[in-house]
Specification:
By secondary structure, this protein is mainly alpha-helical. The protein contains seven helices and no strands. The two termini are 42 Å apart. Helix content is 74%, strand content 0%. The mean pLDDT is 90. The chain folds into two domains: 63 residues, 434 Repressor (Amino-terminal Domain), CATH 1.10.260; 42 residues.
Length: 117
């Protein structure tokens, strides 16, 4: 799906969730109702300024407006988490301990690298 259609679907969903009519949302964005309609149908490409205004109106990060929620960005991580969940509590705790040790080590290494710059 192209980004303009992802944007279109996301703003339609956010507008509906906020309870705003198309006209009300358009006014808050400084757009005409017909132009917002074009955006919501994916008939126009939003500019950076529209993405920024829309993200502020709906209190979301700008990148979320261009992110397709139906696409799982972490399929490998999700698959592995599903496996870990199927393990017993002792195995789960062991994996958590390993991850926490790795994170601490990684954070320490980043701190050392940052200080050496």
């Amino acid at each position: 799906m192209s980004l303009k259609y992802v944007f279109a679907n996301n703003i339609k969903k956010l507008r509906a969730q906020s309870g705003l009519s198309q006209k009300e949302a358009a006014e808050k964005l400084g757009l005409t109702g017909s132009y917002l309609g074009y955006l919501e149908r994916g008939e126009r490409n939003p500019g950076i300024d529209i993405i920024e205004k829309t993200s502020k109106l709906f209190n979301v990060k700008p990148y979320t407006l261009l992110t397709d929620p139906s696409v799982d960005p972490y399929p490998i991580l999700k698959n592995n988490l599903d496996k870990i969940i199927s393990y017993g509590p002792n195995h789960q705790q062991f994996i958590i301990d390993i991850l926490e040790a790795y994170i601490k080590l990684t954070e320490k290494n980043f701190t050392i690298q940052d200080q050496s710059k």
